[in-house]
Write a structure and sequence with these properties.
single chain, alpha+beta, seven-stranded antiparallel sheet, 7 strands
């Protein structure tokens, strides 16, 4: 996907109503108060050197895509905050109540670049397998 397509997905999610029940969506997952979109495909697990090289190249490509998307979003909305999801995961592991989408995101990535635009939070993060965005009305924990 291109940066323009990523921006289009984020704008689409910003304009969408939130569902009453959690479940899959056309771009990822959603639930009461949130949408999470997978902005690029998952990388399959490989068991040979060629597959490892492909996975490394795909990871490099995701990092480049994230950088370009962050640049465009920063021009649009200003500098993002950086939200540490590691501490959120620690809270989850201590059985503290952490609502989705924060619980789900903390299980997938360490950091999220985050903007608050009007009454919604918009975040972009990079997991081991994909570039993701979240649009939520639920405040970070």
């Amino acid at each position: 996907m291109t940066t323009a397509q990523h921006l289009e997905t984020i704008d689409l999610l910003r304009s969408r109503d939130f569902p009453e029940e959690p479940g899959p969506s056309d771009v990822g997952r959603e639930g009461p108060g949130f949408h999470i979109a997978e902005l690029n495909g998952r990388v399959g697990d490989g068991h040979n050197a060629g597959a490892d090289e492909d996975a490394e190249a795909a990871a490099d490509q995701r990092a480049v895509e994230q950088g370009a998307l962050l640049d465009d979003l920063t021009r649009r909305w200003g500098e993002p905050g950086v939200f540490n999801l590691v501490t959120t995961l620690l809270r989850v592991e201590r059985d503290e109540e952490v609502p989705d989408p924060w619980r789900r995101l903390s299980e997938q990535m360490e950091w999220l670049y985050l903007w608050q635009i009007e009454d919604r939070w918009i975040g972009v993060g990079l997991s081991d397998f994909q570039l993701q965005t979240v649009v939520t009305e639920i405040d970070p924990p």
